[in-house]
Design goal:
11 strands, five-stranded antiparallel β-sheet, alpha+beta
Length: 242
């Protein structure tokens, strides 16, 4: 007998599931691996290296090579981190409102700040970032996940954002602590790999993506956040937000 699988290894991201979507299966996954279901144990892990994304069953010691995603094939990675994405959007709205207030004594400065906040909101939205902007996004993501998500504080962080569509009938959304990572591949089939993981593991994703982007095999990889409405829809469609 043993307790639930856990690891402090920063190179092993414990995931709850991974789903493969393709163009011909727009709303339902073409394939999936779910932790603790079937022959898969609760030791389902994701490794993000300079060579790509790799899945293993760490309890059985079985690599899931059919799920390998090579770095050179990656086109875009998108991340849903509730506190990071929602707080960026909230800050942008507040800055824009302040900049547009009549009688502002320093309009140029306020507009500049609003622009900075808007770019931060883009990092929490759907705009693909490259170069220094992508580096800045991952740095902010790591800071948010290490200071909040890793400690299991997503619930309070989301509550502070006052985003109506993230609240259920009882003012709660069961999946609000979950994080998403979606990797889109360059191919005609439109392959998209969706990883679902708990908030405590999310900081490892930021570290892994930083490592991936520093590698020599990746080509023009875009980085972005996911819109909150899309994240909720994806989680509920896959049965994680009900």
């Amino acid at each position: 007998m043993r307790g639930p699988y856990t690891t402090k290894d920063p190179d092993k991201i414990v995931i709850k599931a991974v789903y493969l979507f393709m163009n011909q299966f727009a709303k339902t996954p073409a394939s999936q691996l779910v932790s603790g279901v079937g022959s898969v144990t609760d030791g389902l892990i994701l490794r993000i290296t300079t060579e790509g994304l790799f899945i293993d069953d760490d309890v059985r010691g079985v690599p899931q090579r059919e799920w390998d995603v090579k770095a050179w094939t990656l086109k875009l990675v998108e991340v849903w981190c509730p506190p990071h994405c929602l707080n960026s959007a909230k800050a942008a709205a507040a800055a824009s409102a302040s900049a547009s207030t009549p009688g502002s004594t320093h309009p140029s400065l306020l507009h500049k700040l609003a622009g900075q906040r808007a770019r931060a909101a883009d990092r929490g939205g759907t705009k693909a970032l490259t170069g220094d902007d992508a580096d800045a996004y991952l740095t902010e993501l790591l800071r948010s996940c290490k200071g909040c998500c890793r400690l299991g504080l997503c619930a309070s962080a989301i509550k502070d954002t006052d985003v109506p569509h993230l609240a259920g009938q009882n003012g709660e959304w069961k999946a609000k602590g979950l994080h998403l990572l979606r990797a889109t591949v360059r191919d005609q089939e439109g392959k998209r790999y969706m990883f679902v993981l708990g908030e405590e593991e999310s900081w490892k994703v930021a570290v892994g993506l930083q490592r991936l982007r520093r590698g020599t095999q990746v080509r023009a990889l875009g980085v972005s956040g996911m819109a909150s409405a899309e994240a909720r829809m994806q989680l509920e469609t896959l049965g994680w937000g009900l």
